[in-house]
TrEMBL record:
Annotated coiled-coil segments of the chain: none
Known catalytic reactions: alpha-D-glucose 6-phosphate = beta-D-fructose 6-phosphate
GO terms, molecular function: glucose-6-phosphate isomerase activity
Pathway: Carbohydrate degradation; glycolysis; D-glyceraldehyde 3-phosphate and glycerone phosphate from D-glucose: step 2/4; Carbohydrate biosynthesis; gluconeogenesis
UniProt EC number: 5.3.1.9
Family: Belongs to the GPI family.
Descriptive protein name: Glucose-6-phosphate isomerase
Taxonomy, superkingdom: Bacteria
Keywords assigned: Cytoplasm, Gluconeogenesis, Glycolysis, Isomerase
Active-site annotation: E359, H390, K514
PANTHER family given in the database record: GLUCOSE-6-PHOSPHATE ISOMERASE
Subcellular location per the Swiss-Prot or TrEMBL entry: Cytoplasm
Length: 552
């Protein structure tokens, strides 16, 4: 659908029908919905690859789902999806194609950007990465002093950090345990300091990950890392080639930094930062898990890409998840969405999704530049269970807010050190199932009274229930399953952006702070002629206080 000719979302008949349906539903009760439809627990499920998805504990009926699918049809989700897969420039504000799906396309696929098939280049880079990863893993790649690499420090931020850092954590049990892999992102020097302080520079490789190779945090950290390495090794500039590689789209800047472009792994402007860890940005992950496991992960991504592209609307999992988010955000005023993995290996997964979702859909103008008057992306948050149960679950269960949540769990653990630890898995998963049950069905005052609870405590011990959750269950957290999960969320975010008619692929909102920081820095250091008089009184006073504390 041509965005310019499209009716405002909240003026479409499909939106109005949903609003009316929402009114008629009133306060839907999950107990009632299950009583009316006893087979709901098996009927409201989907299977995508290895993922079993249960959406029965949602405040929806068949009619809700039908109306939501009609909204998706009316807003052209499928057309935009097809345009994305075809390589059309759907990122209109940056005039770019959006083709992370090409990063996991099989070797013989054809995906064209400006008339050129990009798949051979994708596989050429993957092959180059694999050959490099094998050299490092086998000890063939040696540093300046001839020692093999034992430590890899990935320096990047945002999409050039969160993806590989998350995936490394997730796939730890598949990694070469003789290699140490660390991630440095923050311009706070403490990050780099703690990452390198106990490393032997002769055995350390820095992977500088930056799509643009201009990001101030990354270039600053990379420069400090280079200084540390050359000082510690008492070496000249020629040592850089053996200890630094770059992952970037910007060969000129890479060369300017002093990294041999033979040691640069390329990707392209049609890969968004937050959609990039399956590109060259995944190099340090590939070194850690090996090229075969990396390819298994890409196959997992591809499986869900194909599902999203071809599955009918009724069975399309990313479409369904996207629509459920629209239902709560736009028709229940839910402000946030929790992602609660019951796997410690997924401890960085929600932080990764924060960038994917919030940088993509945290927008308030539509694709034509007009202000939207409907809610867009939610606040995404969460940490692994069971830890969260002893922190903020109280608010989800008994607070005043509606917080839809995704629960992600696995039938079998991937760690296998002690039999006792494997037995613990049942306890973990018992909590996993118990939480969605408690959230959905709560505990009525009558049930509380029946337990002999004194009347004055009844309101305190009552659980309202009706907190909607999706449960995603898979056998094991393998590389392929990780790829499937990430692609599921990528496409969910896509669906929502398409419905809200926003450009999910730009991120202008990060610019202003960067520009202001550049202006403020000379005021802190006293370098340059920046004019403190141009600051507002609050910022000026704070800058002044900082300078006094620093003795300047
Ligand atoms: O936060 C803004 C952003 O541009 C992200 O989209 C991106 O992932 C990150 O900065 C890092 O950018 P680069 O890879 O170019 O260093």
């Amino acid at each position: 659908m041509n965005a310019a000719s499209r009716t405002k979302l909240n003026q479409t008949p499909e939106w109005t029908a949903l609003a009316k349906h929402r009114e008629e539903l009133g306060a839907p009760q999950l107990r009632e919905l299950f009583a009316r439809q006893p087979e709901r627990g098996t009927a409201y499920t989907l299977r995508v690859g290895d993922l079993h998805l249960d959406y029965s504990k949602h405040l929806v009926t068949d009619e809700t789902l039908r109306l939501l699918r009609e909204l998706a049809a009316a807003t052209g989700v499928a057309e935009l999806r097809d345009a994305m897969f075809r390589g059309e420039k759907i990122n209109t504000t940056e005039d770019r194609a959006v083709l992370h799906t090409a990063l996991r396309a099989p070797r013989d696929a054809v995906v064209e950007v400006d008339g050129e098939n990009v798949v051979p280049a994708v596989h050429a880079v993957l092959d180059k990465m694999a050959s490099f990863a094998d050299q490092v893993r086998s000890g063939q790649w040696t540093g300046h002093t001839g020692k093999p690499v034992k430590n890899i420090v990935n320096i990047g931020i945002g999409g050039s950090d969160l993806g590989p850092a998350m995936a490394y954590e997730v796939l730890r049990s598949f990694t070469d345990r003789d290699l140490t892999l660390r991630f440095v992102s923050n311009v706070d020097g403490a990050d780099l300091h703690e990452a390198v302080r106990d490393l032997d520079p002769a055995e350390t490789l820095f992977v500088i990950a930056s799509k643009t190779f201009t990001t101030i945090e990354t270039i600053t950290n990379a420069t400090s890392a280079r200084d540390w390495l050359l000082t510690e090794l008492k070496a000249g500039q020629d040592a850089v080639a053996k200890h630094f590689v770059a992952l970037s789209t910007n060969a000129e800047k890479v060369e300017e930094f002093g990294i041999d472009t033979a040691n640069m792994f390329e990707f392209w402007d049609w890969v968004g930062g937050r959609y990039s860890y399956d590109s060259a940005i995944g190099l340090s992950l590939m070194v850690a898990i090996g090229p075969d496991r990396f390819r298994e992960m890409l196959d997992g991504f591809h499986l869900v890409d194909e599902h999203f592209r071809t599955a009918p609307a009724e069975e399309n999992a990313p479409l369904l998840l996207g629509l459920l988010g629209v239902w709560y955000g736009n028709f229940f005023d839910a402000q946030s969405h929790a992602v609660l993995p019951y796997s410690h290996y997924l401890s960085k997964f929600t932080a990764y999704l924060q960038q994917l979702d919030m940088e993509s859909n945290g927008k308030s103008v539509d694709r034509e530049g007009d202000r939207v008057d409907w809610q867009t992306g939610p606040v995404v948050w969460g940490t692994p269970g069971t830890n969260g149960q002893h922190a903020y679950y109280q608010l989800i269960h008994q607070g005043t807010k509606l917080i839809p949540a995704d629960f992600i769990g696995f039938a079998a653990p991937v760690h296998d050190l002690l039999p006792g630890l494997i037995a613990q898995h049942d306890l973990l998963m018992a909590n996993f199932f118990a939480q969605t049950q408690a959230l959905a069905f709560g505990k009525t005052p009558e049930e509380v009274r029946a337990e002999g609870v004194p009347e004055e405590l009844v309101p305190h011990k009552t659980f309202r229930g009706n907190h909607p959750t999706t449960t995603i269950l898979a056998d094991k957290l393998t590389p392929s399953v990780l790829g499937q999960l990430v692609a599921l969320y990528e496409h969910k975010v896509f669906v929502q952006g398409a419905i809200w008619n926003i450009d999910s692929f730009d991120q202008w909102g990060v610019e202003l702070g960067k520009v202001l920081a550049k202006k403020i820095e000379p005021l802190l250091t006293g370098d340059g002629g920046a004019d403190a008089g141009q600051l507002d009184s609050s910022t000026a006073a704070l800058v002044d206080a900082y300078r006094t504390l620093r003795g300047r």
